[in-house]
Amino acid sequence: QVQLVESGGGLVQAGGSLRLSCTASGISSINPMGWHRQAPGKPRELVARITRDGRTNYTNSVKGRFTISRDNAKMMVYLQMNSLKSEDTGVYYCNAHPPLTTYWGHGTQVTVSS
Predict the structure, then answer these.
(1) Interatomic CA distance for residues 81 and 79, integer angstroms
(2) Which residues does the chain have with pLDDT short of 70?
(3) Which candidate among 19, 85, 96, 98 keeps its CA 20 to 30 Å from the CA of 70?
(4) Nearest residue to 24 (alpha-carbon basis) of 111, 112, 103
């Protein structure tokens, strides 16, 4: 049974930093994992992805600012977000990428004030 618990969001001023954490239960560590973002009124989008061996990909808008990492032993996934912008505001979710089921966790809200 997959269970995803995201944490670490909050309200931050533009230019600030946050570190998101995700506990992923029921997902094998062989799976690539991703952080996804859903901004108000927009569809959910993938912002960062990491393979089991640490290869990463980022959407262009976050390259150089966000860093995804993972701990395979604990099945934890992290997203370090620096130089935050107002357009980074949204609910952030982690999941396998591609997702293994239709299940998504509750996400964690990130709000960046300008």
Answers:
(1) 6
(2) none
(3) 85
(4) 103
